[in-house]
Fold these 2 entries.
Entry 1:
Amino acid sequence: MIKLLPLIALLFSLNAIAEPRATGDLGIVIEREDGNALIINTTEHKRLAKIEKLGDLSHASVVFSRDQRYAYVFGRDGGLTKIDMLKDAIDKRIIQAGNSIGGAISQDGKLIAVSNYTPGGVKVFSAETLELVADIPSDYGEGLRSKVVGLVDAPGQRFVFSLFDAGEIWMADFKNPKAPVIKKFPNIGKQPYDALMSPDGHYYIAGLFGEPGLALLDLWNTEAGVKHILPDYGKDDEKLPVYKMPHLEGWAVAGDYVFAPAIGQHKVLVIDKNTWELHDTIAVAGQPVFVMARPDARHVWVNFAFPDNHQVQIIDVKDLSLHKTLSPGKGVLHMEFTPRGEQVWVALRDDNQLVVYDTDTLQEITRLPANKPNGIFFSSRAHKIGL
Amino acid sequence: MLVMTAVLAKAGLAGEPSQERQSTLRNMLNHDCGACHGLTLKGGLGPALLPEVLAGKPDDFLISTILNGREGTAMPPWQPFMNRDEAAWLVGVLRKPEH
């Protein structure tokens, strides 16, 4: 019996280590100033772990492996960190560039692509080892290299991205990862600042900062080239200052309409998806930053640039009216819906908090502490095209 | 060089913002300016704002860029949120190696 005791103790400890954890309802919250990633549970509203030393996360985004075990964090300083959400630990970490903006995971989950400002271009890595697979410099003329924005995955093992300085969209086919085939679409408009992919992988749309409108690429018909839509929108109106660049993420589609932030106007654009013409505009509290549809698309949630970033407004898609204005706290930077949309998590940078709302009653459910949170990313993104 | 130091000192002293205001301005620098120029000011969509990058640029030019923005770029005017003395103070902060 005495001899058995250590064995029993060992069995108990093994059991503790092997305590199973599912990852389908987990998420990552970025603490921008400290350079940390929090692993959170969206069902229990709990912080599970803090992963530290991820570098400069003043602008950060996250994608998930298709098994939802790993989170890939793209940092401002070119850091790419692979977090193991089962072990609450960094699995691998590299510095792949000097200054980067975001990333994407390929359709088959085997490649991670990162879009870089300095040196401009896209680098593609093995999702497993983070070894370099391909390097695509964003050259667009003699000695000119563009900042790259709006990088997303597309069906057919492709990545699509936009060149801010060059005004181009590039599509890279990675069916053969050693020899990617790149198709370039020049003259798509001035200064594309971000882009999105429709959830069905059909349309890629880049927002333009340097001129009115958006650039539309139909992936079912790339031969037709890029179409400049809404070229006249706001042309004659005074452009209001933009204190934070909008993000085009989480394509907000409801029925026939697409919702997008106007630039330099305190409005949300409602675009007809059949004609790609402006259907309506909805006046809102400030320069919209994120315009995101609840997963069932009944409501569209909008947050704002400084100095209106203490509010969130909710648009009722049924009659394209303003449904409600919430004041969650200071510095609303990001929102993330639970997979089926019954709750939404909101990051309050200047209040050092996360607040969770019931999206039906719009009542607050709980608040969790987080130091200067800027981005919230749930593992359900693993199975969504373009996220 | 002496003249420049004197000018800098003057810019700093002219209307030094209150402690509370300084902390608001620093927060603005880190997070709102930092949204484009990076938390560490090494640049992003906007250019880097490190002392060595700003070294050749006169105070007046930088103050005016902050207050009025820059045409044809994404830099907006910050005049609604700060006065000239505060912009001058921010330029002083940017010129210091550590801030």
Entry 2:
Amino acid sequence: MEKLGLSPPSLFNFKADNTMQKMKLVVVGNGMAGMRTVEELLKIAPDFYDITVFGDEPYPNYNRIMLSPVLANEQTIDDIILNTRAWYQDNNIKLYTSARINKIDRKNRIVYAENGFSAEYDRLLLATGSKPFMLPIPGINLEGVLGYRDIKDTNDMINAAKTHKHAVVIGAGLLGLEAANGLKIQGMDVTVVHKNAWLLDRQLDQTAGQMLQKNLEAKGLNFLLQKNTEQLIANSQGRVQAVRFKDGVEIPADLVVMAVGIRPNFSLAESAGIYCNKGIVVNDTMQTYDPRVYAVGECVSHRGISYGLVAPLFEMAKVCATHLANFGIGQYKGSVTSTKLKVTGIDLFSAGDFTGRDDSEEIVLHDAVGGVYKKLVIKDDKIIGSVLYGDTTDGSWYFQMLRDGKAIHEIRDHLMFGQDSLGNTGHQGQDKAAAMSNEMEVCGCNGVCKGTIIKAIQDKGLFTIDDVKKQTKAGSSCGSCVGLVEQILASTLGGGYAPPSTSKAVCGCTEKNHEEVRAEIRNNKYLNIPDAMRGMEWRTPNGCATCRPALNYYLLSTWPHEAVDDPQSRFINERVHANIQKDGTYSVIPRMYGGVTSPNQLRKIADVADKYAVPMVKVTGGQRIDLLGVKKEDLVDMWKDLDMPSGYAYAKGIRTVKTCVGSEFCRFGTQDSTQMGIDIEKAFDHMWAPHKVKFAVSGCPRNCAESGIKDVGIIGVDSGWEIYVGGNGGIKTEVAQFLCKVKSHDEVLEYSGAFIQIYREEARYLDRTVHWIARVGLDYVKQRVVEDAEGRKAAYERLLYALQGAVNPWAERVENRDKHKEFETITV
Amino acid sequence: MGGWVKIAAIDDIPRLGARVLRREEAEIGIFRLEDDRIFAINNACPHKGGPLSQGIVYGDKVACPLHSWKISLVDGKAEEPDMGETACFNTKVEDGYVYLEL
Ligand code: SRM
Ligand SMILES: Cc1cc2nc3c(=O)[nH]c(=O)nc-3n(C[C@H](O)[C@H](O)[C@H](O)COP(=O)(O)OP(=O)(O)OC[C@H]3O[C@@H](n4cnc5c(N)ncnc54)[C@H](O)[C@@H]3O)c2cc1C
Ligand code: SF4
Ligand code: FES
């Protein structure tokens, strides 16, 4: 133990020899919120503190949520340990278990434990959780009466079940019902007593509550509703033997579990003179009224609210860690929570304000026989609450819209029928997860099966999609299975799972999301990456492989001709203008405007393929020719010999403009689609974008160029051209949506150019047009491109301005070959 | 073991970038960090042999260009949860030239 005594006043401690000593962080409460904060802190500032943790339970940190599955014999205590003792050791954390802190000396900055240990701190984190609320009635201290909070309570219940018969659970909230279900599985006769008219009245409306009661009764539970408990009656050995109600009725009970609510555990803080009001009062940075003392978890009162679910606590933990690390960023602004009941075989979900108010509307679907009930509460075109019973497939989808405040009028007709009804052919995987066996493959890219994911969630204590991606790789490549992974996560974790909000930070290097970054680049006129990172207080000296390419694109698209392009922040393909292959060679795809070539071009390609012994010549899915397997040092010579423009087949930028033969030859053609395609490809050549952009032009509605699955699809009709946007033929096929119809060739260029320019200016990096439109809505796009004529013209002008003077990158490299040393290897 | 071999002028290696040294046995990636520290590691990713020299360099790591494993330039180890390691070589810079211990 550190020697006691006064610490120097500065936040950093200097030893006599002037070397810097680490600051000391002490954590009181070794539970879910406290340890999550420490984990977040270690992630961003691993060497900042000497950390000491005090916990009054005898165990290292475990997953409290999973006590219910332990009681229900679905898991063991060993399964639910989140941080083993070895973890504390590996991270140089001093852990004291069975050590309750009973005094904080704030003046001298020391905490004292009941068992005699003490520790000095520079910063203190309080994470003391909460306590079960015990009704103030006679008999509450009898043997056989408990709350349900920790491993000890759980073990006590399991043991009681071995020798006793009658269990009474007081309180039909989530905790009470999970306790009752577990005790039933342990073999007891269980009666749940509740003072209100239906179960889970804080989470469900009456209809859903009654459906739930029926299901639980079928599992063998008994219910006594609208009963007020008056007294617990003892037998001769001082153990509880019965429960008596205010109406005089008595029922047998040799185990009573109190589950009528929890109370934030703030007595320690209060005794130290830290301001409390039904909880430890914290500001949006999780700081208490004593600036050296932070608090997170169920023990706090934030903007007057104390939370009892882990999702908000984890958000607090993230914010708190950034402040403990002295980054001074991140604010916690409160959370909307959702709940699920962890009773196997019962699907129930609720979120937000599900009872509604006078000015809200409801959409309800009720199939009493099928056991399905869904209610959505809507106000001002947004979902504000939801109750789902029997089919919770879309719970996280609704919850996400609720948290994002997404306008729903466009999908209102389909809302009730779920995300799958929106033309989603099952790629998101909702409702598929449950039907899968553990051996079935979830992630096709990385070969990860369902069992592996579940095991990782349980063994490693994962709570977020990002964690699962990191640990298992599932969902980290093409992303098409993320919906399925999310389902597995949600069903494994129950209510502990909170779907991510879509407006998330660009990466771990910053708190800011894409929109904020774009806005700051515009408002502060950042012109290069170092300035932008400095100005926006990036946490890392030069970013990472995720944020640098995004920043580079945002700078270039916001300040064309002014911002400095940084080749080192571009992915190799864009840096060397060729696509890297699995063996480190490259592919070369020259442009063939509109898919049209000539004998002369073909001859050149053939000659080059011979000269450089190109291993494969292939016609691509995009109407041109690919030379695959080229060595990096041959690239420049090959481009020189080819003397054709780059096809940008490697770029987040304009790719192909596919065309069909059109009216010049085809007997059905109504418009010259080939020429239109050539003109578009030439007009927008060299354009960088948030992701790749593909066009297609067909000469008639037979649509041989497949315009229906392109970012911009154009279809010639007798009276002009139809323009479709947001199609995608890739990972998840999306049919393009009709934008408008125009008459002339020039209008096609102007409308599609304006559309692409607004996408370039507003979409997040790596969003294809379909993803961007899904977020902003087609109405918005129509408004900007179709209705606002002046805005459209201006956007089109901005695109043309950005493209002014752009050059073919291959020719540029050929001309300046000494400048691009990158293509030469060194030999010794 | 040979000794120190002169490789290239430091300015011929881009900051936050790399060059490739080709030898008979294998290729070595020579990396230059933002603060001009130079690291040399085997130009093959422990995952599937991706050419690390072609990746995006940040901090003291490089993200492999093929599947984005993050490899430390300091000790050649892959960032968790990936597991693997690639060989490292000693480097020094004298009078603006990079030397490699081979
Ligand atoms: C060469 C080509 C396959 C072929 O031999 O035909 C191809 C090859 C690759 N495609 Fe593709 N795609 C090719 C046409 C397509 C098409 C068809 C089309 O354009 O009509 C699609 C579906 C249409 C679409 O994009 O909407 C297509 C959808 C994808 C996707 C999924 C994109 C999505 O948003 O869902 C990827 C992955 C990505 O970009 O992240 C991808 C990624 C790739 C990459 C770049 C993978 C990679 O990162 O290395 C492949 C590079 C191979 C190489 O060495 O050049 N490729 N790819 C085609 C080149 C067309 C061209 O001339 O430029
Ligand atoms: C059976 C059960 C099921 C649950 N199911 C869900 C669910 O499905 N979804 C969900 O979101 N949430 C669920 N919860 C709630 C969730 O577990 C809590 O929200 C979460 O654990 C609170 O974290 P915390 O760190 O604030 O408190 P805790 O995890 O309780 O940690 C506080 C720790 O501090 C210790 N401590 C207190 N005072 C002192 C002191 N003076 N000195 C030293 N140590 C001290 C306590 O003993 C405790 O170990 C469930 C809870 C229970 C009990
Ligand atoms: S070319 Fe496209 S579809 Fe074929 S393997 Fe590569 S990425 Fe997959
Ligand atoms: S080869 Fe490097 S990540 Fe796959």
